[in-house]
Design brief:
Rossmann fold; 6-stranded parallel β-sheet; globular; alpha/beta
Length: 491
């Protein structure tokens, strides 16, 4: 995570009176927490930043602050947001009493281990308003807009950031926002809503979204006039920096929307009516196009194959497509030569390859995480799933299991969901063997948990050691055995 990004985040939170943020990022959570807490201490502002081992837990803790009329935030990767869907969906119905902002960070191109979830379309499904930025320097203002919208309509608001937007140069102007005292109101009809109350809350939710879409949205709309009316572009903020110079060069008007949901349809319809042909540019899912009444008449991800080709746009991919649409001519594609550069395999990857050669029937079940990317795998599963998978195969082949399974996970995944899977495996006496990559910052937490578990063996493992294969082949499951590998030794 880049320093400037964290600086803008800290300034936006403190300047807008946020008093709590929980952070669940694959990497950089500790850096963000330290920077935010140091800034808050320096300015004597009561903002607390905490790392969380689970998106669900982080969302719930931050949500509690907003129930008590304090401003709070939750920061995670967009692809991790589905883990928090249970409290997220509930909070959309009940609403909040203080401002609550869900900040989602997306990496472009998507990481190899990500779920490829689109947080913007997920928010449309959940009926959570979404704001986007076109530059990281706008983050303090974006946080202000999100908190204002959240408090005015008493609803969680997502602030979606794509890491491809320009970083800019950080210049600080530290100010502190309003401090609030916790004030929890007792209101069972809202906070403990039964199905009957949920029905009424759903009607209020639909009206709330309509009011937001029809409110004064001038500050959320960026328009670039063009001399030509043959083509107009409606785009999301994440791609604006790519499109604007190209459009100005060709005299093409642009309408960029900072609130993709609920979409302010009226100004977009007026823009569409002012040009002969409209192209709508957005990443991943056609969220904006889906909300337009005449969406089939617009070139977009929903209606044009060229605009469906890329999961998330990059400049060198997007502009040639726009040139084709503008000129009506298709450019021949030049085949790029195949890459001959092979990445340097880690010592753990070499070890697993050797283990596979010696024991061809061995099945590698790998959690999709940053640390397991590039390792040989027979099955990829979600974080924490390797332990459950191994336990399931053991029970399925009981009483004489014949398929040798080796799970591979890391300490973040263990703390995320693996603890429940481990507890379940021990309780149901499933025989499980699992290589566990341990990050330095997780060493104490991991060993505290595993040492407290009965029938769990911890076997330190060095992939380059001569006896490494022998350890895995000969050590018994008790019923669960973790072969711990520090990340520095797996590299």
């Amino acid at each position: 995570m880049e320093t400037d990004w964290c600086q803008w985040l800290a300034e936006g939170l403190i300047g807008n009176g946020c008093q709590y943020i929980s952070i669940a990022l694959e990497e950089g959570s500790d850096h963000a927490c330290d920077l935010i807490n140091q800034a808050a201490e320096r300015l004597h502002f009561p903002l607390q930043a905490e790392q969380t081992i689970s998106e669900k837990i982080g969302y719930e803790v931050a949500l509690t602050y907003s129930y008590g009329k304090k401003r709070s935030a939750f920061l995670t990767h967009g692809f991790s947001l589905p883990v928090a869907m249970d409290p997220l969906m509930s909070s959309i119905y009940t609403g909040v009493a203080g401002g609550f902002v869900v900040i989602t960070l997306d990496i472009t191109p998507p990481l190899a281990y990500s779920s490829h979830c689109d947080p913007v379309s997920l928010s449309m499904f959940a009926k959570m308003p979404v704001l986007e930025l076109s530059d990281f320097s706008q983050l303090p203002m974006g946080i202000k807009q999100a908190f204002t919208l959240s408090e005015k309509y008493e609803t969680p608001v997502m602030l979606h950031l794509d890491a491809k937007i320009p970083k800019g140069q950080y210049t600080h102007s530290w100010k502190t926002g309003k401090k609030r005292k916790a004030d929890f109101e007792k209101n069972p009809a809202r906070w403990a809503a039964t199905p009957r109350f949920r029905f009424l809350l759903h009607k209020k939710l639909n009206q709330r979204l309509k009011d937001i879409a029809e409110s004064d949205t001038k500050s959320l709309i960026y328009r670039v006039e063009g001399s030509k009316k043959e083509l107009g572009i409606v785009c999301n903020h994440a791609n604006l920096s790519f499109i604007e110079p190209w459009a100005q060069r060709h005299g093409i008007p642009i309408l960029s929307i900072a609130m993709p949901f609920p979409l302010p349809v009226q100004p977009i319809s007026q823009f569409i009516a002012s040009v002969k042909k409209t192209v709508i540019i957005e990443d991943r899912f056609p969220t904006m196009q889906f909300q337009l009444p005449e969406r089939k008449k617009i070139l977009g991800r929903m209606t044009d194959e060229r605009l469906r080709q890329e999961f998330s746009w990059q400049k060198d991919m997007l502009l040639p497509v726009l040139d084709e649409i503008r000129t009506g001519k298709t450019k021949g594609e030049e085949a790029s030569p195949p890459s001959t550069e092979a990445g340097e395999a880690s010592s753990l990857a070499h070890f697993l390859g050797s283990l596979k050669k010696k024991s061809p029937s061995l099945v590698f079940v790998v959690d999709k995480t940053p640390l397991t990317a590039g390792l040989p795998a027979d099955h990829f599963v979600s974080r924490g799933g390797a332990i459950s998978f191994a336990a399931g195969v053991f029970h399925a082949e009981s009483p004489k299991p014949s398929t040798p399974i080796l799970g591979i996970t890391d300490s973040a995944a263990l703390l995320h969901y693996g603890m429940q899977a481990t507890t379940n495996a021990v309780y149901n006496t499933a025989s499980v063997k699992c290589i566990l990559l341990v990050r330095p910052e997780h060493t104490q937490a991991v060993h505290t948990f595993l040492d407290a578990m009965e029938h769990v063996a911890i076997v330190p493992l060095k992939p380059n050691a001569k006896n490494a294969q022998k350890k895995i082949e000969e050590s018994p499951s008790q019923p669960v055995t973790f072969y711990t590998v520090p990340t520095e030794e797996a590299a």
